[in-house]
Design brief:
single chain; 263 residues; alpha/beta; TIM Barrel; 8-stranded parallel β-barrel; 10 helices; 12 strands
Amino acid sequence: MKIRSHLKNYKIMLTKRIIPCLDIKNERTVKGVNFINLIDAGDPVELAKYYSESGADELVFLDITATKEKRKTLLNLVERIAKNINIPFTVGGGISSEEDVLSLLQSGADKVSVNSSAVKNPELINQLSKKFGSQCIVVAIDAKQIKGRWKVYLVGGRVPTEINLFDWAAEVEKRGAGEILFTSMNNDGMKNGFANKALAKLSGLVKIPIIASGGAGSMQDFADTFLEGKADAALAASVFHFNKIEISKLKVFLKLKQLEIRT
């Protein structure tokens, strides 16, 4: 099976990216608030096809219960989605080895996202970036601000750690990650904007691209995370799934804000 080849050097990319996210549970797209109270948001294959045709720059697929259920990512569903889209496709959930990554790439993913497994075994980032190239490896970081400190959480936000968000971000860059997908658990599903102060600090700390996740509720929220949060890409789910924001209209809005947006 041929591995898809949408990979580019994102380190030198100047345009801002809009990325819908498919959180998958029981092979359905779901969305919650602060990582809980999940509701059904539709068929992932149909949503993926719609976003690909509607101007999304990339697509992220996260099998949100794979790690908790101690199983591998849903390869069949990944393959079905990959056949229906023509944009870069990142897949995460339950990835803990080179074999897992190879299987996903062969199923149609362009990049993989590792989270809990990387925290438990940081050397995994080195191994994967060396084997597949840093442009292929995204490290997802779920973090919550508690009493002024940003702490990293594992297993889909279920397990707290004492690891500092910024320390971990600096380490994953050194180990070879090509991008960081930062989700603020405080902001997730609240629709009141991204965690722009933390994002700006992350952007100033590392040279690799930062994908902002958690909090999108309006078009202005996207503009703010690019302008104030210095994010390289913005990821969202419910505002797209439930037709609160159309990607084509969002891009027009952002261009009017003098932002470099892909057409």
